[in-house]
Amino acid sequence: MILLVGLGNPGEEYAKDRHNIGFRFVDHLDKYWSKDSQPIELNMGKAKYLLNFKRLYEEKTSSFKAREYELDLEKETAAFFSHIHIGLLQPLLFMNKSGEVVQKVIEGFRTDFHPEHDMLVIHDDLDLPLGETKLSFGRGSAGHKGVESIFESLGTQEFSRLRVGVGRPEGIKEAEDYVLSEFNKDEQAVLNEVLNQAELRIDEWLINAAKVNARENH
Fold first, then answer.
1. Which residues in 61-200 belong to E strands, given as ranges?
2. Of 29, 64, 155, 163, which is the most exposed, with the fewest CB atoms less than 10 Å away?
3. DSSP H or E run through 210
4. How far apart are the first and last CA of the chain?
5. What angle do CA 130, 36, 46 make, to 5 degrees?
């Protein structure tokens, strides 16, 4: 199992906030992977991969919303084939309790799970400008309460994160108020482009995670 966790706060009043960018990424991935029955073709270096996603189910409880996908991954002209399950998770106990939800979900898995190569957490980042994303591994939280909660619950910070830039507030506006504010029209257009570009980046991360899984299981 591979787990992609989008961080945010539950409730319609927070849905469009900068702090909820992780939720929006997960919703976007769900639409992207389920929109077409044809495999997604992806070139990485000289290799060409075919990714075939199949949506299995959706579950929503008081503490989380989850979707599960089945991914058949094939490398053209080479004897590589991987069949893995992917979970898309949105914790619903507010940002500072995200780790409790992630830990509980992982404990329910019936297969071995290793956060260091099986988990990607997606969240907003004040240190990156709007329109920029960055994959990080083992990095500190930089004060992000959702990330800190996962560190505490899992007892490790050794996992991958996709940090999505929202920029820093101008003038005297506090960072906490800023991340709980909505994007304006121009910023929303930039965010839409970021969401589309991230499809490729996350698919590449999945391919690398699948390769690690294949080595672990043989």
1. 64-75, 80-91, 119-125, 133-137, 160-165
2. 155
3. helix 185-216
4. 16
5. 70
- Tokens 């469009």 belong to which residue? 16
The model's pTM is: 0.93
The rounded distance, in Å, linking the Cα atoms of 74 and 84 is 11
Which residue's entry shows tokens 């898995």? 109
Residue 216 burial (C-beta neighbours within 10 Å; 0-12, 13-18, 19+) = exposed
Contacts of 31 (CB under 8 A, 6+ apart): none
Residue found by looking up tokens 């990485």 in the block: 44
174-212 pLDDT per residue, tens: 888 889 899 999 999 999 999 999 989 999 999 999 888
Topology of the domain comprising 2-216: Rossmann fold (3.40.50)
Residue whose tokens read 């505490």: 152
Does the annotation mark 114 as catalytic? Answer: no
Structure tokens at 70: 């089945």
Report how far residue 61's alpha carbon sits from residue 57's, in angstroms, rounded to the nearest whole number. Answer: 14
Phi, psi dihedrals of residue 79, rounded to the nearest 5°: -85, 65
Summarize pLDDT for 55-64 with one digit per residue, the tens. 999 999 999 9
